[in-house]
Specification:
This protein is of the alpha/beta class. It has a domain at 31-134: Rossmann fold. It is 25% helix and 25% strand. It has 5 helices and 7 strands. Strands 1-7-6-2-5-4-3 form a 7-stranded mixed sheet, covered by helices on one side. Strand 6 (128-134) and strand 7 (140-144) form a beta hairpin. The longest helix is centred in the N-terminal third of the chain and has 11 residues, at 43-53.
């Protein structure tokens, strides 16, 4: 599955959207989607597009830059939207209680801190990791990170 090259006008790949929809069913996978790229590359815009593709209210998804963490519900399942641009260290992530309550879908903008601290935090668990790397022109490459990477991190 994938990787996909995405232009700014391209929708999320249907195959990927269908895979993500599985997290909203009992016993479904817990999925992490990380979005990286420079300021203004379209990370929040892409999250809004994804929310709409998943049948969620895309207007509820705004940039959490100053709030840092926003929680949503979809079919009763927890969806987290994080922006780690202003987060100083992994201790702040721990204070948020990551891993204490499961989330069907976790969306993370500026994920480097989370990814670097993942191996140190055995309570953080995701069954799948998808990554979107964006560029200044709002294009990007979407890929599913290998399962072996995920298992080595937990």
């Amino acid at each position: 599955m994938g990787p996909w090259s995405l232009k700014p006008e391209d929708p999320w790949p249907l195959e990927m959207v269908e895979e993500l929809k599985k997290c909203f069913s009992p016993g479904g996978p817990e999925i992490l989607l990380t979005l990286s790229g420079p300021l203004g590359a379209g990370k929040t815009t892409r999250i809004k597009q994804l929310a709409q593709s998943l049948g969620m209210d895309s207007n509820a998804f705004s940039s959490p830059t100053f709030l840092k963490l926003m929680e949503h519900r979809h079919f009763g399942f927890r969806v987290l939207h994080m922006d780690l641009y202003r987060v100083e260290d992994s201790a702040e992530l721990m204070r948020w209680g990551l891993g204490e309550e499961s989330a069907a879908l976790t969306l993370v903008e500026w994920p480097d801190l989370l990814l670097n601290a993942w191996s140190e935090n055995p309570h953080w668990h995701w069954d799948q990791h998808w990554r979107l790397q964006l560029t200044n022109d709002h294009s990007g490459v979407l890929s599913k990170v290998s399962k072996s990477f995920i298992q080595s991190k937990v």
